[in-house]
UniProtKB/TrEMBL annotation:
This is GNAT family N-acetyltransferase. InterPro entries: Acyl_CoA_acyltransferase, GNAT_dom. One of its GO terms (molecular function) is acyltransferase activity, transferring groups other than amino-acyl groups. Transmembrane segments: none annotated. Pfam families: Acetyltransf_3. Residues 31-177 form the N-acetyltransferase domain. The keyword Protein biosynthesis does not apply. Keywords: Transferase.
Amino acid sequence: MMTDVPSMQRLVPRSGPDVRLTALQRDHIHTHFRWNNDPELNRLDSEVPFEKESFGAFKQRFERLCDHPTETHYAFEIHSISDNALIGVAALYRVSPAHQHGCISLTIGDQAYWGRGYGRRAMNLLLAICFDDMGLHRVSAETFEFNDAWTRLVKGSGFSYEGTAADYLYRDGQFWDKEHYALLEDDYTPLEQMPVEPPKATREEVAA
């Protein structure tokens, strides 16, 4: 049960097999700016039509997230432990302390880490923060019909399908659905009970 609203300092860093979640770090602003202006990442994750943002505008927004986190929105960095690389971002937003629920998102921004299990590990840590650390009762997630990787991750993490907003998004010349999923605390598997598998090697590592 959610008894209070924890500060970011109480939630992170949070480490698990191969990945670590931290607060946003000002020193990494250029990596975040690059991902923010990446058309492919925006196509997969955002319903807002893509427009490149100036560095000045992004800097103001990013520093506000770093310096003034709120009790309704938490933003995290995802790091690979083996090489200490910043590989993605995650968020817990629309948090309602009164009703003990929130919504999550997660993006592996560095494509060198796609398809290697890092998203799954980061998801496990994010859910541990939601349920174990914050005491939420319900966590929801939204998926776009064309983002197969995120949909598989959500379903594979135990989320239940709740409904579809038909033809919600117009992109690439056609309409796409948005699907709604949720995971309740009674259906959540604690982090220490999760099976642990090593991350998949890159093609370069396999070739070597």
